[in-house]
Design goal:
mainly alpha, MetI-like fold, two-stranded antiparallel sheet, 2% strand, globular, transmembrane
């Protein structure tokens, strides 16, 4: 009875109004899911795959670094020990005497030196390149960025072998020296060749993030500074560099860490005469068959990377500038 009266009241025409029937309005229920999104359980397979192929190998390496080495070498014995980390700084002789050993620190020092030189040279070369690209018209910028990314289309081994042809005794460089009446130089299988290979390989990793930061810069600010009497160096130092800082920090990290653990360039261009940390780790898993020690060296590099990432996050939070570690 009450329902029938309510319906009658709703459909009743009010003579004091316009004579339009009063129809109840039902509002559509708001969807809690964003349009185009998936339910949470749909991403479980992707998370499992990501965990297996990213976190899984890291967990295995960390576990292996605390395991014991079998007497015959190769593999691990599942007995907890800190010996792999102790052997990084100390060695014991047949009598059990423990002494400080700096061999592996020297390898880290050589790796640090070459990675630092690579980063500094790439930074000095990349900033003017990125700034010049960012000041070109948009269509030309796309073409120039395409030219920068062309090396990524070719396998790293192929590019490294190309440098071997350039630097060998009968290569382009020595033939140019001979044409100028200069004596030939031994360039291949030297630390210089390894350094050149690292710079060539990682230069695009510095140019692209720096260009990405400068692409959004309003260069009218620089023109206004020129109009107010500022010098070019002042404009670069006070206006352009602060805006490009996130790209510079991202590029430094993208270049330094891979160069620090590089393997291909020291082997092929350095001829095995340049021992870097990447080659040392490979030899521990290969020739030396000391998996726990190789895993411990890998963990040390991971810790260095984590410290660098924490530093980047702290800098980003303190300066208020978003730093993205991506190309």
């Amino acid at each position: 009875m009450t329902t029938e009266l309510n319906r009658a009241d709703l459909n009743r025409t009010d003579p004091d109004r316009t004579g339009v029937n009063m129809v109840p309005v039902t509002r559509p229920r708001k969807s809690l899911r964003t349009p185009g999104s998936f339910p949470w359980f749909a991403v479980i397979p992707a998370l499992i795959v990501a965990a297996l192929f990213t976190i899984g190998p890291l967990v295995v390496i960390v576990i292996f670094s605390f395991m014991s080495r079998p007497p015959q070498g190769g593999g691990v014995i599942y007995e907890f020990t800190l010996e792999p980390y102790v052997n990084f700084l100390f060695q014991s002789d047949f009598l059990g005497n423990v002494a400080f050993d700096s061999r592996y620190l020297e390898v880290f020092g050589t790796s640090l030196f070459q990675a630092t030189v690579t980063t500094v040279v790439c930074l000095l070369l990349s900033f003017p390149i990125a700034l010049w690209i960012a000041t070109r018209p948009e269509k030309i910028q796309n073409v120039l960025v395409l030219l920068i990314t062309i090396p990524f289309w070719t396998n790293l081994l192929v590019r490294t072998y190309a440098w071997m042809l350039i630097l060998n005794d009968n290569g382009i460089v020595n033939n140019a020296f001979a044409a100028l009446g200069l004596p030939k130089m031994e360039l291949l299988y030297t630390p210089l060749a390894s350094q050149l290979g690292l710079i060539y390989t990682f230069l695009p990793f510095m140019v692209l993030p720096m260009y990405s930061a400068l692409a959004g810069f309003d260069f009218r600010l620089a023109e206004a500074a020129y109009d107010l009497g500022a010098k070019k160096t002042t404009v670069v130092r006070r206006i352009i560099l602060p805006f490009a800082t996130p790209g510079i920090v991202s590029g430094i990290l993208l270049v330094f860490m891979p160069a620090f653990g590089s393997y291909v360039q020291p082997v092929l261009l350095g001829g095995g005469k340049v021992l870097l940390i990447g080659n040392l780790i490979a030899s521990q898993f290969g020739d030396s068959r000391n998996w726990p020690f190789g895993a411990a060296l890998s963990v040390i590099i991971l810790i260095m990377l984590m410290i660098a990432l924490i530093f980047i996050a702290f800098y980003s939070k303190k300066s208020g500038k978003k730093v993205e570690i991506s190309l």
